Amino acid sequence: MQATRLPPLGALQAFEAAAESGSFAKAAEKLFVTPAAISQKIRGLEEQLDTVLFERSKQGVSLTRVGQSYLIFIQEGLEKIRLGQQQIKQFASLDVLTITTFPSIAAKWLMPQVLSFLDSHPEIEIRVEASHSTVDFTRSASDICLCFGNQDYPALNNDRLFNDTVSLVASPRLLTTLTDTNNLDAIFQLPMIHIDWGSHNQNLPNWEDWLLAAGLNIEMPKGGPHFNLSSMAIDAALQGKGLLLGQHLLIENELKTGQLVKLSEVSLPLGQAYYLAYPEHTLDNPNAATFIEWIKQKAKELTP
């Protein structure tokens, strides 16, 4: 077989279905064809590859060793084709500007900014996708990623937006349990809410960091809820479940409305800034260029 001559897609689908079901008849049901058609496609595939892929018996069919190895590559290739099919609708909507970012940033900061942008640009359609995964711009319909740090996209445009800070906050409901809200020793007997960012924990100030910066030598009580999303930690703080080192831009509204109150002027910066990352071809869309410049200006205005 010539190296560049690929088998027909239908033959590969028949091979995959028969291999997974162990039966030409079941493969035929799955693909809505006759067992004879499956058998013919498999026979043609084996002739083209010049090898036997299945052992036939009255009980059904089973893969040969060569067939087992071949199946791994075929499944991977067909899965990529199926993923491409799923992306067709998104890629077809080239006028839609798609922005990907972390769930907490999407809900607490980006979404309000997008809604404000749409008030003055109603003709532009924007899709916000929340995800922790690194964006593969060659396979994703995403145009822009609002990311933490710029290490994941070294070959792309990286526009710095802001470097957020964390402050000690709590809900007024929680503070009613104290007789003196200025007594930090008493405050730190309350439960503490913990946030786990996994590989980014070294860039998120923790309770030990804050106490050291505040010059306090306090033994922290054990316990307190743990969350891997900042938004969930904020919700827990709003419900009075504990003290929180809250990110300024994520709790700005809660501070303004009094749902959370700041208990100290000591704040610590995150170890990395937030960036907009995007490939050069994103700028071919004038709507993307307009939004990028607009959000960069908003970030300057909102940086604490």
SSE blueprint and pairings:
Layout: H1 9-21, H2 24-31, H3 35-49, E1 54-57, E2 60-63, H4 65-92, E3 97-101, H5 103-120, E4 126-130, E5 144-148, E6 157-162, E7 165-170, H6 172-175, H7 184-187, E8 194-195, H8 207-213, E9 226-227, H9 230-238, E10 244-247, H10 248-256, E11 261-269, E12 274-278, H11 286-302
Parallel strand pairs: 3-4, 3-5, 8-9
Antiparallel strand pairs: 1-2, 5-12, 6-12, 7-10, 7-11
Key features of this structure:
single chain, 304 residues, alpha/beta, three-stranded antiparallel sheet, 11 helices
Overall description:
α1 (9-21) crosses α2 (24-31) and α1 crosses α3. The chain is elongated. β3, α5 and β4 (126-130) form a beta-alpha-beta unit. Helix content is 43%, strand content 19%. It has 304 residues and is α/β, with parallel strands linked by helices. The strands form four sheets. It has a five-stranded mixed beta sheet with strand order 4-3-5-12-6, covered by helices on one side. A three-stranded antiparallel beta sheet has the order 10-7-11, with helices on both faces. Strands 1-2 form a two-stranded antiparallel ribbon. The chain has eleven helices and twelve strands.
